[in-house]
Design a protein that fits this description.
Its main location: membrane. A hairpin with a 4-residue loop joins strand 20 and strand 21. The longest helix has 19 residues. The protein starts with 8 loop residues before the first strand and ends with a strand. A 7-stranded mixed sheet has the order 5-4-19-18-17-6-7, with helices on one face. Strands 23-27-24-26-25-28 form a 6-stranded mixed barrel. It has a 5-stranded parallel sheet with strand order 12-9-8-13-14. The protein is built from 22 helices and 28 strands. By secondary structure, it is of the alpha/beta class. The site of iron/sulfur cluster (SF4) has 14 residues, from helix 1 and helix 6.
Length: 694
C-alpha cells in the first residue's frame, strides 16, 4: 500500500482459483488493482484466504497475455493478428464449411470450470442451438465427473451434501483421496480448527499428507493404501460395519431401499471382503482399518471429504458410490456435521456441471433424451435440439484421429497439458481442420490452434461462480477487460456470426434464462445475490434462501440407493519394466497446470515439479536428494528432480503437475473411469532411473 498508494475504490468479488470460493475486496487505484483483501463477510472464507487468492492475481496484467485475436491457415504458419470481426467471421465460416463437408456431428465445444456459470451456459447453448448437436463437454470430465455420476445414482443429485459450516458439528472426519492443506487451504484451516477442538480424524491416502500429523493434530488412523484400491478399502470398512452390527438400520429402513441395502450388506459382509482378506490388495493393516470403520460408524456425527484421489481412477464412480453407501449405512446423511463432501478443484467445477456442460445432460442434470424437457428448451431457444447424447472430450479426440471429427471450440482449458496421454491429445488436435482456442495465453493447446480468441480474467467480468458447497456467489468486474470483451460476449458474437441472433446485454439476463429453465436455480437472480451475498442451490419457491444441507427429509431421488461396488483392479499393472506406482497431486502455491500462478510471484515457492521417492527405492536406483531422474511409463517419459522422503511408501512415487517443462501427463495412460471416462491420473506404472537432466 505504501508503494502503490491508498485505494480509491473497492469491489467485492469471488476468487478465481479453487472450489472453496473465498470472497475478496479488490482494492483499486484507478484501473490498477493494488491488493486483494479477504472479505470478512464471505460465507465460504469468513475473512481468510490463501496465497493464491490473496497474492496470485498479477497474471491479469502479465505481458504474455494475448489481447488481439489471431488466425493462421495451418499450425505450421505464424499467427496473424486480425480484428475481432474478421476472427469471428472466419471462425463461423470454418465451422459452417466443416459441417457442410463432414456433417453436423463433426464439430463440438468445451466449457471451462474457470469461467462463470453464465459463460458456461452460453457455450453449451452455442453447441446445442448453433452446432445442432450435443458434442459439448467440460474440463470437469477429467476431475469430478464420477462425483456427478456417483452422487446422482445414490442420492439423486450431483453435488455435495453439506455446507462448509457443517464441519463445525462433525465428531469424526474422514478425508480420502484429498489433500486439503494444499488443494483447499481455507477449508483446511476450518477443518483443522475443528480437529483441534477434538474431532477425530481418519485419513485414507497413499501418501502421508500434512493432515496426518499437523501442529496439535494427529490422525486417529492413517490408512496408507496402495494407489488404486479405494474401493477395496471402503468395502472392507463396510464389512466391519455390517458384520459387527454397527449399521443404522432404523435410518436405512426409513430413508433407503431396504432390499438394495440387504443385497449390499450381503455382498460386503462376505468373508472375502474382510480387512484381513483384502489386506494383500490394499496393503492396509487390518486392525487399523477395523478401528477406522468402528470410529466412523460409532464416533458421532461422521463426515467424509474427498478429492481427486477418489475420482481419477478406473473405479472413480464406484468409489464415490462406495462412499455414499457408507454414509447411508451409518445414517451419516441429512443433518449438519455429516455427509458426503467432494472438494472441488477449480473455482466453478460445480457450476460448469450444473449448467449442462455434459453431452448427455441439460442444465440441472436432466437427460437430453427427455422429450418434454427438450421441448421446454426448444420453445425458449427457438431451435430444435438433438435428442442423442454427444461425444465426451476423449471421444472427440478419438473421432478426430479417426478422421470424422474436425473442429473444436475450447473455452478456458489447456487440454494438451491437462488431459491424459498427451501424445494422443496432440494427435487428435493435429487431425482437426479448425481448433479455436479462447484463452488468456498461448497455452500448449494453442500450438495446435488455427484461431485464437483472447479471453478475460475473473477480474474483468460479471457473473457467478458456484463453489464446492453449491454456493452461488457474485463475480464482479473489477477492471475493464484488457481485450475489450468479457468471455460471454465473445461466445455471443460467435453465436451471432453463425446466425443465432442472441441479444444479451448483461450476464444477469443469462442467469434469468438459467433460472427459467432450471428448477434448482429457479429462485436465483443477480438481485437476490446482491441482497443475500450468496445462495446455495436448490434455491426455489420451496427454499427461497437456498439449501445449506441436502437430503434432510428424504433423498432427492426418493429412497437412497445402495449400489454394490465390487473392487476391480485397474488394468494398469506394475511389472519388471515399470515396477513403481505414480500418483499425482497439487501444492499450495500453484494451481493446476500453472497457466496463472506461474505468471505470478508465487513461482518462487514452487519453481519446478519434484518427484517424491522413498529412501529405499531411491537407494536402489542410486538417486540422492536433488538428482535428476527419468520418469517413464508405457505412455511416455519426462525428466524431473527427485526429493527423497518417507512421506510416500516404498513402491510409490508422487509428483505435482504444475509446470509444462515436466508435463506429468506425458506418462499418464489412456485408462479411465468405467462410467464417465474420467482419466485414471492417480495410478500409473512407472520406472524411475538416474538422468543427466532434461
Ligand atoms: Fe482462492 Fe481457494 Fe485460496 Fe480461497 S482457498 S483464496 S478460493 S485458492
Amino acid at each position: 500500500v505504501k508503494e502503490l498508494g491508498m485505494p480509491e475504490s473497492a469491489t467485492v468479488t469471488t476468487c478465481g482459483y479453487c472450489g472453496v470460493g473465498c470472497t475478496f475486496r479488490a482494492e483499486m487505484k484507478g484501473e490498477q488493482l493494488i491488493r486483494m483483501v479477504p472479505w470478512k463477510d464471505g460465507k465460504a472464507n469468513r475473512g481468510h484466504s490463501c496465497v493464491k487468492g490473496r497474492f496470485a492475481w498479477g497474471y491479469a496484467n502479465h505481458k504474455e497475455r494475448i489481447l488481439n485475436p489471431m488466425v493462421r491457415a495451418s499450425i505450421d504458419e505464424p499467427w496473424r493478428e486480425v480484428s475481432w470481426e474478421e476472427a469471428l467471421a472466419h471462425a463461423a465460416s470454418e465451422l459452417k464449411r466443416i459441417q457442410a463437408t463432414y456433417g453436423r456431428l463433426s464439430i463440438g465445444g468445451i466449457t471451462s470450470s474457470r469461467c462463470t456459470n453464465e459463460e458456461t451456459f452460453l457455450v453449451q447453448k452455442l453447441v446445442r442451438a448453433g452446432f445442432s448437436n450435443n458434442n459439448v463437454d467440460t474440463c470437469a470430465r477429467v476431475c469430478h465427473s464420477p462425483t456427478g455420476y456417483g452422487l446422482k445414482t445414490t442420492f439423486g443429485t450431483s453435488a455435495g451434501t453439506q455446507d462448509f459450516d457443517s464441519v463445525d458439528q462433525a465428531d469424526v472426519v474422514m478425508v480420502i483421496g484429498a489433500n486439503p492443506t494444499d488443494g483447499h487451504p481455507v477449508f483446511a484451516s476450518r477443518l483443522k480448527q475443528r480437529l483441534r477442538q477434538g474431532a477425530k480424524l481418519i485419513v485414507a491416502d497413499p501418501r502421508r499428507i500434512d493432515l496426518v500429523r499437523a501442529p496439535h493434530i494427529e490422525a486417529a488412523y492413517h490408512l496408507p493404501l496402495r494407489p488404486g484400491t479405494n474401493v477395496a478399502v471402503l468395502t472392507a470398512m463396510a464389512h466391519v460395519i455390517v458384520t459387527e452390527g454397527l449399521a443404522d438400520e432404523a435410518f436405512i429402513r426409513d430413508r433407503c431401499d431396504w432390499n438394495e441395502y440387504r443385497e449390499w450388506a450381503e455382498f460386503v459382509g462376505d468373508p472375502r471382503h474382510s480387512p484381513e482378506a483384502l489386506a494383500p490388495v490394499t496393503l492396509v493393516e487390518p486392525d487399523a482399518l477395523r478401528g477406522a470403520a468402528r470410529l466412523y460408524a460409532t464416533g458421532g456425527n461422521a463426515a467424509i471429504y474427498y478429492g481427486l484421489g477418489v475420482t481419477e481412477h478406473s473405479q472413480g464412480s464406484s468409489t464415490v458410490m462406495a462412499i455414499a453407501n457408507l454414509a447411508m449405512a451409518t445414517g451419516n446423511i441429512g443433518k449438519p456435521g455429516v455427509g458426503v463432501n467432494p472438494l472441488r478443484g477449480q473455482n466453478n467445477v460445480q457450476g460448469s456441471c450444473d449448467m449442462g456442460s455434459f453431452p448427455h445432460e441439460l442444465s440441472g442434470y436432466r437427460h437430453i433424451s427427455d422429450a418434454s424437457l427438450r421441448r421446454m428448451f426448444e420453445d425458449d431457444w427457438g431451435v430444435p435440439l438433438d435428442p442423442e447424447p454427444g461425444l465426451r472430450i476423449n471421444n472427440m479426440l478419438d473421432a478426430a484421429v479417426d478422421g470424422v471429427f474436425k473442429a473444436l471450440y475450447i473455452q478456458g482449458e489447456d487440454i494438451l497439458q491437462s488431459d491424459p496421454n498427451t501424445k494422443h491429445v496432440a494427435a487428435g488436435l493435429a487431425a482437426m481442420e479448425c481448433v479455436i482456442v479462447h484463452d488468456l495465453f498461448l497455452n500448449e493447446t494453442a500450438n495446435y490452434a488455427h484461431i485464437f480468441l483472447p479471453g478475460s480474467t475473473f477480474l474483468e467480468k460479471n457473473g457467478t461462480f458456484t463453489n464446492a458447497e453449491r454456493r452461488i456467489q457474485p463475480v464482479r468486474r473489477v477492471m475493464t477487460p484488457l481485450n475489450g470483451f468479457e468471455d460471454w460476449e465473445v461466445t455471443q458474437e460467435l453465436a451471432n456470426a453463425l446466425g443465432l441472433g442472441w441479444s444479451y446485454t448483461h450476464p444477469s439476463q443469462i442467469m434469468d434464462e438459467i433460472a427459467r429453465l432450471t428448477p434448482t436455480f429457479a429462485g436465483v437472480s443477480f438481485a437476490k445475490l446482491d441482497e443475500l451475498g450468496s445462495v446455495q442451490w436448490p434455491c426455489n419457491d420451496a427454499m427461497p434462501e437456498g439449501t445449506p444441507v441436502m437430503h434432510i427429509n428424504g433423498f432427492v431421488r426418493g429412497k437412497g440407493r445402495f449400489v454394490v461396488t465390487d473392487y476391480i483392479p485397474t488394468d494398469e499393472k506394475t511389472g519388471p519394466r515399470f515396477p513403481l506406482l505414480l500418483t499425482t497431486g497439487r501444492i499450495l502455491s500453484q494451481y493446476n497446470v500453472g497457466a496463472q500462478t506461474r505468471r505470478t510471484a508465487n513461482t518462487v515457492w514452487h519453481p519446478e515439479d519434484l518427484l517424491e521417492i522413498h529412501p529405499h527405492d531411491a537407494e536402489e536406483r542410486g538417486l540422492r536428494e536433488g538428482d535428476w531422474a527419468r520418469l517413464a511409463s508405457r505412455a511416455g517419459e519426462t525428466t524431473l528432480r527427485v526429493t527423497v522422503t518417507d512421506r510416500v511408501a516404498p513402491g510409490v512415487v508422487y509428483t505435482t503437475f504444475h509446470h509444462p517443462a515436466t508435463q506429468a501427463n506425458v506418462v499418464t495412460t489412456e485408462y479411465s473411469d468405467w462410467a464417465t471416462s474420467c482419466p485414471e491420473y492417480k495410478v500409473t506404472a512407472v520406472q524411475v532411473s538416474p538422468s543427466n537432466g532434461p
